[in-house]
Amino acid sequence: MTLTPSNNTDSMTSSTPNYADIQSIVADDFEIMDKQVFGSLNSKVQLVMSVSQHVINAGGKRMRPLITLLCARMFNDNPSEKAMHLAAITEMLHTATLVHDDVIDESGQRRGKPTANATWDNATAVLVGDYLIARAFNLLVGFQSLPLLQVFSDGTCDIAEGEVLQLQHQHNPAATEDDYLRIIDGKTSRLFMMATQGAAILQDKTEYMQALGDFGQHFGNAFQIIDDVLDYSGDSEVMGKNLGDDLAEGKPTLPTIKALELLQNSDTEGYEQLRIAVQTGKTPNAEQLIELVRRSGALDYCKQRALEETKLAQDALSTLPDNRYRTGLYQLTELASARLV
After folding, report:
1. Is the pLDDT confidence value at 3 over 70?
2. Is residue 10 very low, low, confident or very high in pLDDT (cuts 50, 70, 90)?
3. Which residues contact 16 (CB under 8 A, 6 or more apart)?
4. Which residues fall within 8 angstroms of residue 199, CB to CB, at 6 or more apart?
């Protein structure tokens, strides 16, 4: 069943989704949640507070907590302090994963700002990332909900496993699309699933857990595939990183995996160039390698896969309550896929 945007008179037009407009649907909740992200930090160690505030300030659009707030309102259109609190916790966990990612990738900048590991050092960044995860679970205990703890503890294990899988396949030109999907299911999609299913548990709407889980998984898959496509075709200033960075880091992304598969049968020389680049991480001819991936047809394949995952995410919404909050979730999927244009 394909979902069409809600006809609810309060719903927004779906033709030109805009992130600020989607956020405005839950503007008051979002403002309170954003303050809670900072307010929930209560370490007695000043360095922990300084580094935590630094990385949270460098945060992005707060998409995962926005999804939690939209889901909570979709089920019960009243302010929910618990939902706002859970949304803040979700952002805290996301921030922790970014801190750890930056250490692993040896990143000096994220979104144009110095990373924690570059500003302080790797050891400090890792330990503060650990603190953010520990603090998130400390706050989750306050809900006194074993099902909620189960979803978040299982999900956090999956996130860690996804990161380890990515590390395991780093510089592996034999990585497959199945390997890639297992990696992004953990490192990206799982947190989107936690953001949606957590809201259902809080609102006692567990009959929607499967649909929300499907939405979170497929939206997360689409989101990550799109990010990986943009590493070969996006605007480096907008992304806050150089094109081809994933290739130089030897990450097993879908564009590289598919390009290797296609080139193996059509361009032996090009295949060897790309295979060696993935294996060694040496990309002095980065522009040539990027063009090689583009010409292989891999990006067209990846774009199609991203659109398939987007449609699956949209279809998963069809069984949820039909209101402007569901429309907001639908428009987030449109906004993500619009980055491919």
Report:
1. no
2. very low
3. none
4. 68, 69, 71, 72, 75, 83, 86, 212
CA gap 214, 212 in Å, rounded: 5
CA torsion sign for 262, 263, 268, 272 is negative
Condensed to tens digits (0 to 9), the pLDDT of residues 245-284 reads: 888 888 999 999 999 999 998 999 999 999 999 999 888 8
Q: Which strand (E) or helix (H) includes residue 41?
A: none
DSSP, collapsed to helix, strand or coil, labels residue 26 as coil
From the list 74, 65, 70, 1, the residue with the least C-alpha distance to 34 is: 65
Per-residue pLDDT, 338: 92
Per-residue pLDDT band at 118 (split at 50, 70, 90): confident
Rg (the chain; Cα; Å): 20
Contact status, residue 140 vs residue 156, Cβ threshold 8 Å: no
State the pLDDT confidence band at 301, using cuts at 50, 70 and 90: very high
Residue pair 275/292 in contact by the 8 Å Cβ criterion:
no
The end-to-end CA distance of the chain, in Å, is 25
DSSP state of 208: G
In the block, residue with structure tokens 């954003």: 34
* Global confidence as pTM: 0.91
Please name the amino acid found at residue 293.
V
Strand partners, 113: 110
Q: Within 13 Å, how many C-alpha atoms sit on residue 304's CB side?
A: 6
Enter the tokens of residue 96: 């922790």
Q: How far is residue 174 CA from its own chain's centroid?
A: 25
